[in-house]
Amino acid sequence: MAKTDLPPDLEGRLRAADAALLDDRQELPAARAVDELLAVLDDARPEAREAAAAELGSHGDARVLPALRRRAHDPAPRVRAAALASMARLAPEPLFAELVKALRSDDARVVAGAAVVLGRLGDRAVLPNLIDAFQTEDEAAGAAIAWALGRLGDRVVLPWLVAALEQGFASSAAAEALGRLRDQRAAPALLASLEVDDEATRAAAARALGRCGYAPAIAVLSLRLNDPSARVRLAAAVSLWELGEGAQAVADALG
Would you say residue 24 has pLDDT above 60? Predict the structure, then answer.
């Protein structure tokens, strides 16, 4: 079914809410000078440091790599991940090998950080390593690996993500990753996850059903418009709109 037309202001709010649900990163602004970016690396705001670290990956200035190495130890995880990703773009071969090795670390935080960077780099050659690392019992590391598997977008990983969702392991991240794969074979597990206690998992499952284009879920998603969680109601409304339902549910969910 085709999406129904929405008033421009409502559609703009919908897309902003959808990006927040999926935690998609926005496009970087126009390229800035290296001197400015290096200065922003010391900004007090983590989001500013993250954006600068990400943008520096497109600059070959000799000062960039040392600055990024310092930010690889930033207290904010997303800044560290952005710095490592930029370092991998500037010096790919040695750092890529180190990241793959880090997936076998005994420190779950190291595993999680490596998984996020590898997901951002987008090289599907690392899929077997990520699948092996997904055997972890650490929820945070598992969530990072699930995110990376979804970001890489290869449907070969679907059985592992479905199994994680069914077992309640890193379930919200697994559901979101399944939405990124847009494969309707995940629908039974996603439908079952609409009934779990965890609101993040219910929201991710509701949104994933829309991304998968699974029209038989319309009736169940309509029931989720009465979910006690505003986040779940919004995810259900966005998916219903994506599946071709009317605009009223979207308007009601956005308030």
Answer: no
What confidence category does residue 253 fall into, taking pLDDT thresholds of 50, 70 and 90?
A: low
- Which superfamily does 1-24+185-255 belong to? Leucine-rich Repeat Variant (1.25.10.10)
Three-state SS string over the chain comes to CCCCCCCHHHHHHHHHHHHHHHCCCCCCCCCCCHHHHHHHCCCCCHHHHHHHHHHHCCCCCCCHHHHHHHHCCCCCHHHHHHHHHHHHHHCHHHHHHHHHHHCCCCCHHHHHHHHHHHHHHCCHHHHHHHHHHCCCCCHHHHHHHHHHHHHHCCHHHHHHHHHHHHHCCCHHHHHHHHHHHCCHHHHHHHHHHCCCCCHHHHHHHHHHHHHCCCHHHHHHHHHHHHCCCHHHHHHHHHHHHHCCCCCHHHHHHHC
User: pLDDT tens digit string along 180-198?
Assistant: 999 999 999 999 999 999 9
Domain map (residue ranges) of the chain: 1-24+185-255
In this prediction, residue 105 has a pLDDT band, given cuts at 50, 70 and 90, of: confident
* pTM of the predicted model as reported, rounded to 2 decimal places: 0.74
